[in-house]
Design goal:
The complex is a heterodimer.
Chain A (H helix, E strand, L loop, with lengths): L5 H8 L5 H13 L1 H21 L8 H22 L11 H21 L11 E5 L2 E5 L3 E6 L2 E6 L6 E6 L3 E7 L6 E7 L2
Helix pairs in contact in A: 1-3, 2-3
Chain B lengths: L2 H19 L7 E4 L6 E7 L4 E5 L2 E14 L5 E9 L8 E6 L9 E13 L9 E10 L4 E2 L6 H43 L5 E6 L9 E8 L6 E10 L3 E11 L5 E11 L5 E13 L4 E5 L2 E6 L10 E11 L4 E2 L3 H6 L10 H13 L1 H10 L2
Parallel strand pairs in B: 1-8, 11-18
Antiparallel strand pairs in B: 2-4, 3-4, 4-7, 5-6, 5-8, 8-9, 10-17, 11-12, 12-13, 13-16, 13-17, 14-15, 14-18, 18-19
Helix pairs in contact in B: 2-4, 2-5, 4-5
The chains are: A alpha+beta, B alpha+beta.
């Protein structure tokens, strides 16, 4: 015959066993003298605790205790408020829109910078030569020769620094230096 | 005219325009080098070249990178390619030069060509629009190969001598005071170039038009101790905005016949501010000790970049290069140029700009390596 352990008896005394175990061990304790005495001892202990914790001791003033607790909580809140960093008074913006706006601005500015025709901002001194209906001149794209309804442009890379010059024999020159390779290229366009 | 006739006319016009856009861009460019040239044309890439109709014309954008190989026996220092677009601009020509090279035998290098051609739609397309040929190659021995139609030999020899002079200057700065001294020389040169005043310059040749009442202004000359040409006197007619018909009297003080002289032309306004205006090349044939005149029918119209007139009050000239009959060339030293403050006015050499660019891009150590490469 098996006997319930002390933990099972404590749960049985508190009425916390599942119903089939409660039925089984209740039947057992009715027929087992030792287990029944253990169960009765546990019932008495539970009843004693319940009796002695049902009312507060006479020396405990609950209202005063509650006032003390509220006062302590208030003091804690005020102390926390005193040491918290002050936030500026006014409109509080979340940081996310500011970051998104900054990133968008950077994208727009970068695109503008990469695609801009620099000659339109940093105007280069112009150079030109003309004779009759023919003309050679420096322009925003390079050196342009116009003659007889046709036009030929020796183009200069926009990303490179260009310096133009002219000589009296009728040629306009452009000098560029490749930023990557360092190669110097000098273009001439001649009037004749 | 019926509506259907107009419709068919529109379709035919659109077809004609479409046919123009079908211009064979690859056949628009022809590169032709002599078979005995020290440079061989290896290949070219037409990249995003294209032809597009624009009104009654066609715009041809040619973007090409020519790959060239040194098949000669000497190192190449400069090359000049002649570009002719006879069908587009009759008589017009252009050139693309690459100075400051150091191409050993068997090495390849690239020359970039970016051209835009605008020609009437009705023009035929019998041959290539652009022909690229070799005008000259300059070797490290200062020897030359090429037809020299553009006077490339003289021009490239001047570039090479300027390159050697300026490399020597920076190498001396390094040798005399180390890297910090070189850095100081580079910064000084860059500051000088950045502060160089500029002008808008329009040149009109052979023009005879009415102009403002002018006065004759005498040239002052900056003389160099070892110059083979002495500038005796010179003058030009000057108005508020134009200078025309400069006349120069020169004497050959060397022992060799002189074939060509190039003068730098500096203008000053009433406040004394000076600015480099132009170079005046003059073909002369001066025997040793002989004097002669260099005349030019050029009109020079000058203005400051912001559009204000310069109001020229005085002019200064200096000899920037001399070519002798034996194909040798003389150029002033850096000391000559700094003595007359000319280095702050005239354009720097291509090599000086290249070396300063190398310093800006890669730093002082890269510049030191580059200078030692040529020693």
């Amino acid at each position: 015959m098996s006997h319930p352990d002390l933990r099972t008896l404590a749960l049985l005394a508190g009425g916390e066993l599942p119903w089939w175990q409660r039925y089984r061990w209740s039947f057992h304790t009715r027929n087992c003298e030792n287990c029944r005495q253990e169960l009765e001892a546990l019932d008495e202990s539970r009843a004693f605790v319940a009796r002695n914790t049902a009312t507060l001791p006479a020396f405990v003033d609950w209202d005063r205790l509650a006032d003390d607790m509220r006062a302590n909580i208030q003091v804690g809140l005020e102390a926390g408020e005193a040491i918290r960093p002050r936030e500026p008074v006014g409109l509080r913006l979340d940081w996310r829109p500011a970051v998104a706006l900054t990133a968008l601005t950077l994208v727009v500015l970068t695109g503008w910078y990469l695609n801009i025709n620099r000659h339109s901002i940093y105007r280069l001194p112009s150079a030109s030569v003309e004779a009759g209906d023919a003309r050679v001149e420096s322009g925003s794209d390079g050196i342009v020769l116009t003659r007889g309804g046709g036009r030929m442009t020796v183009m200069q890379p926009k990303a490179q620094a260009v310096s133009y010059s002219v000589n009296s024999t009728g040629a306009v020159s452009a000098r560029t230096i490749d930023a990557e390779t360092g190669q110097v290229t000098i273009s001439h366009v001649y009037l004749d | 005219m019926s509506i259907s006739t107009k419709l068919w006319g529109s379709v035919l016009l659109a077809s004609a325009l479409f046919a123009q856009t079908e211009l064979d861009v690859a056949r628009s460019l022809k590169v032709e080098f002599p078979t005995d040239a020290p440079i061989a044309f290896a290949s070219h890439d037409l990249g995003d070249s294209r032809a597009t109709p624009r009104g009654g014309a066609v715009v041809v954008d040619l973007h090409s990178s020519l790959m060239l190989r040194n098949v000669g026996t000497q190192r190449i220092r400069s090359i000049t390619l002649l570009i002719v677009a006879q069908e587009v601009t009759p008589g017009g020509k252009a050139s693309v030069s690459v100075p400051s090279l150091d191409i050993a035998t068997g090495d390849t290098f690239s020359v970039r060509l970016d051209l835009r051609l605008l020609r009437p739609s009705g023009a035929g397309n019998a041959g290539p629009l652009v022909k690229v040929t070799l005008d000259g190659v300059l070797f490290d021995s200062l020897g030359f190969y090429g037809p020299n139609r553009l006077d490339s030999r003289r021009v490239m020899t001047v570039w090479e001598l300027e390159a050697r002079r300026d490399r020597k200057f920076f190498a001396a700065a390094l040798a005399n005071g180390g890297i910090e001294n070189l850095r100081q020389a580079v910064v000084t040169a860059q500051t000088r170039i950045d502060s160089r005043p500029r002008l808008d310059v329009q040149v009109a040749r052979g023009r005879v038009t009415a102009y403002d009442p002018s006065r004759s202004v005498q040239f002052a000359f900056v003389k160099f101790p070892d110059s083979p040409i002495e500038s005796i006197r010179g003058s030009a007619a000057v108005t508020a905005t134009e200078i025309h018909a400069p006349r120069l009297e020169l004497r050959n003080t060397s022992s060799k016949p002189v074939r060509h002289v190039e003068m730098g032309w500096i203008l000053a306004d009433s406040t004394g501010k000076e600015v480099f205006a132009s170079s005046v090349p003059a073909k002369v044939n001066l025997a040793p000790g002989q004097s002669g005149q260099a005349l030019d029918d050029t009109f020079l119209k000058v203005a400051r970049p912001e559009g204000r007139p310069l109001n020229v009050t005085s002019m200064k000239g200096f000899v920037s290069s001399v070519e002798f009959a034996d194909d040798t060339v003389w150029i002033p030293t850096r000391q000559d140029l700094s003595r007359g403050n000319l280095d702050s006015l005239a354009a720097p050499s291509a090599e000086e700009e290249r070396l300063l660019g190398l310093y800006r891009k890669k730093g002082i150590n890269a510049l030191v390596v580059e200078l030692k490469k040529f020693q």
